[in-house]
Records
---
Amino acid sequence: MRRLQATMGCHMPDAVLDQKATDELNLRLSVAFNTAVPFLLFGMALGQTSLVAVPVLFWWIMGLIGYSLVEYAFHRWILHGLVKHGHHLHHFEPFAPHAMPFCAGLCVHTLLLVILSLSLGLDLALCITLGSSTGYALYCQLHELIHRDPSLARRLVPRLHRHHMLHHRTGNASAGDACNYGVLTTFWDRLFATFRP
Ligand SMILES: [Zn+2]
Ligand SMILES: [Zn+2]
């Protein structure tokens, strides 16, 4: 810990450094866990599903599209509406390692798999959850890239990088006046008239 303080060239209290180290670990685990979930589900789907390739691809894409809508709605109406505090920290310190608890994505997708299995059967549930978890994994990787390596993000995904940075610049999470809520796609912002180029 002292070596970290020396590296940072400052004398932050140990409690603050401990919290930063915990946040950093949580972010790393979050990206790793959420990237692993679709691979896990893909392995399960290979062993379980009786569907052939075309329906699997169709329902996988439906899950991915469904995820992108949930991502937009959750960001716009929950993080900028009902539960502002944690997200306000991310807007205030966009380069700090603020993230949801690392197991949140795994828990949500396990719950989604169970609910969909009971209503649609295991085959469709696996394909849809695979699509949804792929979307969340891509979101985690992309959001991490935009904030932690902006120069690479500007080269790889210039439009999405600009889209999200404009969200940070124009939006005050506690005032609810932001634009560009989508991270993975600009589609829902264009559809719901919250897009700003
Ligand atoms: Zn952000
Ligand atoms: Zn926001």
---
Amino acid sequence: MPHPYVLLSAAVSLDGHLDDAGPERLLLSGPADLDRVDEVRASVDAILVGAGTIRADNPRLLVNSPERRAARVAAGRPAHPLKVAVSGSGDLDPAARFWHTGGEKILYTTDQGAERARALGIAADVVPLGPALDWRRLLSHLHDERGVRRLMAEGGGQVHTQLLTQGLADELQLVLAPLLVGDPDAPRLFGPGAYQRGRLRLVETRRIEDVVLMRYEPTAPGTGATVSAADRHWLALACELAGRCPPSRTAFSVGAVVVAADGTELARGHSREGGDAVAHAEEAALAKLDPTDPRLATATVYSSLEPCARRASRPAPCARLILDAGVRRVVTAWREPDTFVPDADGTGVLTAHGAQVLVLSEYEDRAKAPNRHLLG
Ligand SMILES: NC(=O)c1ccc[n+]([C@@H]2O[C@H](COP(=O)([O-])OP(=O)(O)OC[C@H]3O[C@@H](n4cnc5c(N)ncnc54)[C@H](OP(=O)(O)O)[C@@H]3O)[C@@H](O)[C@H]2O)c1
């Protein structure tokens, strides 16, 4: 199910705290960074926080700049993004500012929490998600029922920890403030959890007065049929590589990336790479790898087009090369049409041998873009 793009936003002290343990909210950012946060808020469809943040900070979570609100309205959007709260208990203060400022509000909760929230008269659309709160269901609901395409999660630590460990965060915008809290009772940005083992990708650093903004993207593929945000990033890269292929009238332009379970890129390739007129993307990528690399058994192959099941130009089709490499998870954007090979079914070949194939059709247009001339 498609999800919104999920951006985690937080400011932390040098010792990793979101706040101190006192009653007042600790100010970590300065005016310029708060203005940057306002700009990000103005760019999203919805802002999400956990009940802990509503209780601790009583935030409004508005777009503060009148110019930014006016620009949103001029673009046909509400002045403020949808405000989203998450609570298991439903035990929230109905007088909190969150409910009485800005535009629409939605509270995701459990069946029991919904009863409690309704009894308290919480001024929001109360959506129960079952006996327990399921983040994937929440994100699908926001996407499908509320049209949310970009979601900014503004904390707190429990919310960020779950979105990151469950592979649901597309991006982390972290501001590091030059102060130390030093109190073991103060809330931390990330709690214990099953995080991805490898490194995140650093996409930007920016000095803003005396704080530093760092933007990271998680890189770890999902497991089995579970799609992670990083799966979408890698598939988008495969589609981008497809656009770099030398054009052909007799073969598709395809990009492929092989990624280890910890998020390390192992190899990439594209059709007709290196002047080889018949090279396929997956073949080009796999050829760069040591076939005994133990990471292949848990790696994922991302290919903009379903790996081929039959080919005239070489003895082994790409579905076979992937199986022989030991890879058992493939993510693709587009099933192969009958343009060159009738009834091509690379997915059938792969799944018949125990591989998982996921088709993320929201990337199909990107995968087709460099192949339009072949599609009539
Ligand atoms: N520096 C920053 O950028 C920043 C930003 C935001 C917040 N903060 C700070 O962060 C602190 C609050 O963080 P926090 O970690 O304590 O709280 P939080 O993440 O804001 O909220 C946690 C609450 O959300 C609900 N929740 C989250 N996941 C759930 C799930 N899977 N199932 C059911 N309910 C779930 C629960 O509500 P119920 O208890 O109602 O069940 C839980 O107690 C505050 O001190 C605040 O100042 C700092």
---
Amino acid sequence: MRNLKKLVAAAAGCLISTSIAFAGAYPATAGSGAPPAIKDPAVEWDHLWREVIIDITIIGVVFALITAWLLWRYRRRPGNETGHAPKLSAAAAVAWVVIPTFVFLADDLYIAANGWQLWNVYREVPADRLEISLETGMYSFDYTYPNGLRTQNELKVPAGKPVLLRMTSRDTLHNHFIPDFRVKEDSMPGRITYLWFLPKEAGKQHVVSCAAYCGVMHSYMAGKIVVLSPEDYKAWYDKEGAKLNDTKSAAERATAMPAKKS
Ligand SMILES: [Cu+2]
């Protein structure tokens, strides 16, 4: 009985200190007064994900070891079938329910609070950003750059600059999912939604996929994000912008010409 009490106390102490140690390992930024530094949301989401995996692994292993030890400690022995098994005291029985529940809930709350905090940080888009409009439709992603340039299913972006997509849809619900950047947001008719990400490595391409069932060709609704160096991006953007202006002025000249008399 004394052993059991010691065990309960040791397990509780171990788990609570583990939980507190993790809380210390992930410093809070919300409410500290200073604006949070711009961080790559993808890295932060990965951090949180690893933390969930580590927590549930530690809790799972500790509880499995305790269970295995109890099974061995109180195993059936020959000649002891009628037995005089020690009874749990009321306090020990309550402790067995309350302490594990507290540990699980404390960890759940801690993880949920970190997720909520990270979500709030993520929803504050960095001021220095490239803003691009996105209209989704069956079955394409149509991007419009600040100079009016349009691309379909391919978004070129400069490395090192946060990119904000303002999204809407011309027909039904779609979703712009970029797995590599850990971002995913619905686009829908009559509403503007947004997501942002931080492309870091020039020369890389990232898959974009629709992640909301939008019709029979939904599985074909995919695109890519091409990350260029800032210089290459500027060169491409200026060149395509100039082409667009030439086309526009030619169209304006054509409409301004007086109609020939017949
Ligand atoms: Cu879809």
